[in-house]
Amino acid sequence: MPEPQCFLAASKSILVPTSSVKGGSISIGGSLQLLGFCTFEACVGIFWPSIMKMRSQYIPEEARSTIMNFFRIPLNLFVCVVLYIGAATSQQMSMAIPLEQSITPVLQDFMNLNIFYLPVYYCGVPKDLKYADSHEWVKVEGDSATVGITDYAQRALGELVYVELPEVGISVSQGKTFAALESVKAASDTYSPVSREVVEVNEKLSDLPGLVNTSPYEKGWLIKVKLSNSGELNSLMDDDKYSKFCEGNH
């Protein structure tokens, strides 16, 4: 059977009603749920590439983060309403059902473990890097350096869905924007910790922006640069100072 017909037959099969035989096909209700889920996933797959292309073409770079964050306000309000309703419902249920009856003793013991009380500012801080107060890191190798965002920054942003990097060959001064990161929660600019000329960008991030989340200090690096003023490194923090800086933010 040709490949398109195979896919068509497979898609039709999810709509076949259940039979009386055990192990038969799924019910009509289950088929509709599965179809709805597949439709939702298809829409998500279309949305992100489309919004990325339109954003790069129609939204000025200097106002991109502000505009994208503005359109996230309705979504954030919706999430707050859902959380508020969920909290109110949970409170009503907890008043109606004693705690010892609502969860098992094993779960109670698990909830009492100290892992639930780890400091929220805890994050990985390698010792061989320099750090900016805007949460970028620099790894110096001779007259060149690799730049990325810290584990603290990626945790604050959440799951990244888009990374916009500069072109190779441009020069940016210390403290100036050089990249834009967009997560499921917000869009954020990234600032250069040193003055430099970009000699390489991490092209993998165009297809795999999540590398910044899973490996911020290795596979998730952003750019490699040729240092133009190594003295600027003296204004950056070492690992001890940066750890205290992160702790002070909480």
Element layout with pairings:
Elements: H1 3-13, H2 28-58, H3 64-70, H4 73-96, H5 99-102, H6 105-111, E1 130-131, E2 136-141, E3 144-149, H7 151-157, E4 160-164, E5 171-172, E6 177-183, E7 187-191, E8 196-201, H8 211-214, E9 223-227, H9 239-248
Antiparallel strand pairs: 1-2, 2-3, 3-9, 4-6, 5-8, 6-7, 8-9
In short:
The chain is built from 9 helices and 9 strands.
Structure description:
- This protein has 250 residues and is an alpha+beta fold.
- The protein has three domains: 3-17 and 24-57; 61-117; 130-248, OB fold (Dihydrolipoamide Acetyltransferase, E2P).
- 42% of the residues lie in helices and 18% in strands.
- The protein has nine helices and nine strands.
- The protein starts with a helix and ends with a helix.
Strand content: 15-25%
Q: What number of domains?
A: 3
- Can you tell me the overall shape? globular
Largest sheet: 6 strands, antiparallel
What would the keywords be for this entry?
three-stranded antiparallel beta sheet; 250 residues; 18% strand; six-stranded antiparallel beta sheet; globular; OB fold (Dihydrolipoamide Acetyltransferase, E2P); alpha+beta
